[in-house]
Design goal:
There is one protein chain. By secondary structure, the chain is an alpha/beta fold. The protein has one domain. 45% of the residues lie in helices and 19% in strands. The protein starts with a strand and ends with a strand.
Amino acid sequence: MSKTQFVSFGNRGFWAYDVALSIFLKYLIDAAEESSQADSVWITGAVSDWRIWACVPDLGFTVNEHWSASQRQEFVALAEVANAKLVTRESIPAEEIVRWEILEDLHIFPRGETEVLTAPVVELGEAIIALVSGRLPETPEGQTWYYGTPVGRQTRGRHR
């Protein structure tokens, strides 16, 4: 099992540390469920997918490129709410993470971490927002972005 998962929107994307991605998705789910759009068909469908991606990170995370412009704007707004909540915490203890019931009896696996710093998770959320908004910077030639790693954004040689 890889520690990184591909995050994509359209024909662009980057790699993300799976624990950080799962935590971001948990906060995104919370934001969606607390939003005024929580009962809309597209949000309930998206939340269902996000729950699976949060608990089964080998699937990666794909933002639906067929959403309307207003749905993409709502997604960005929800991601911003998720990040705003994450930024209020310095870290999240593993004991708390494993208690989150994301999907039936499925939980987030923190990979032996005793705590997860939130700054890299927020940076990952910002990268997802930039990706969907068309503002994600190009990677340096021959490199790939990695977000959400315990030390923050990195570039590495192309992922194989």
